[in-house]
Design a protein that fits this description.
Number of domains: 1
Number of helices: 13
Order of helices and strands: HHHHHHHHHHHHH
Bound molecules: zinc ion
Helix content: 55-70%
Number of strands: 0
Radius of gyration: 19 Å
Strand content: under 5%
Largest sheet: none
């Protein structure tokens, strides 16, 4: 079983990776139609069009840089470099420890840094500018952010000492979990409670898309919910009171315009205001 998973991800083709990405969007879109969390008042296809544009640029960036990732992973394995290599772990432990650490360094930390370094935030805010969060929002990333995330994934791969099968398995899980936790779906609260003790659910991640601080600077997680609990950035609110977007960019003529979105990182920085936690409680 474990061997066949490793075998599959060690040799996964770009076609299969694309099927996972497209299949995930299709799957969660169907559930969104069946059990929507909020009846979002928006044109679903127009909204999806903008987000699919940014998903395509993400795919292109990742496609052209993938060889660096493969080279880095091959190098750490050949030189026994990185945490899972030094610990000489069994395959199942490499899988568990590796996934946890890749999610921490490649997603949680990368995300936290993008919220705290101004020039990176100017790229990341394109993701936050979406005022209707659904499964297509998952990959709404400025191409510059895709490069920043890629650099973090390389660093994570080297620090973890991740073999290529683990990197591909992690990336596939990361794509699907991100589509899941952005999806506009309502989960029965008892299921949410069980799931959120391990993974990031839509209820948890949607808080991160509230338009104002401090909530936009909480719940950074992608796959596992542990990191936000460990670093005290975990919060739970009444999701019905959320208002998606980013306070500095609420003008629809700006955020529904792909050309303008692409220019934002190169325009002057707009200051954000700290609000009290009570604002939406
Ligand atoms: Zn964010």
């Amino acid at each position: 079983m474990l061997d066949s998973i490793i075998d599959y991800f060690a040799n996964i083709s770009s076609l299969h990776r694309t099927i996972i990405l497209v299949g995930g969007i299709a799957f969660f879109s169907l559930i969104e139609s069946a059990v929507p969390l909020m009846s979002l008042n928006y044109k679903r296809w127009k909204h999806a069009g903008i987000n699919i544009f940014f998903t395509l640029t993400t795919i292109i960036v990742n496609f052209f840089l993938a060889f660096i990732l493969v080279k880095s992973s091959d190098w750490v394995v050949a030189h026994n470099f990185g945490i899972v290599q030094w610990l000489n772990l069994s395959t199942i432990s490499v899988l568990i420890v590796g996934l946890l650490l890749l999610d921490f360094l490649g997603a949680w930390l990368a995300h936290w840094v993008q919220h705290h370094v101004t020039w990176m935030w100017k790229f990341h805010l394109i993701h936050h500018s979406d005022q209707n969060i659904d499964t297509t929002s998952a990959n709404r990333h400025h191409p510059g952010e895709s490069v920043i995330r890629f650099v973090f994934t390389i660093m994570a791969t080297i620090v973890v000492g991740a073999p290529m099968w683990l990197v591909f398995l992690y990336q596939s899980m990361s794509v699907v979990l991100s589509q899941f936790n952005h999806a506009n779906i309502i989960l029965p609260s008892w299921i949410d409670k069980i799931l959120v003790s391990v993974i990031c659910t839509p209820n948890m991640h949607h808080v991160h898309h509230h338009y104002r601080m401090p909530y936009s600077d909480m719940n950074y997680g992608n796959i596992f919910s542990f990191w936000d609990r460990i670093f005290s950035t975990y919060t739970k609110v009444d999701n019905k009171k959320l208002n998606y977007g980013v306070d500095t960019h609420m003008n629809n003529t700006e955020v529904d315009n792909i050309g303008y979105m692409l220019k934002i990182p190169f325009l002057p920085y707009r200051n954000r205001i700290e609000y009290d936690e009570e604002e939406i409680l």
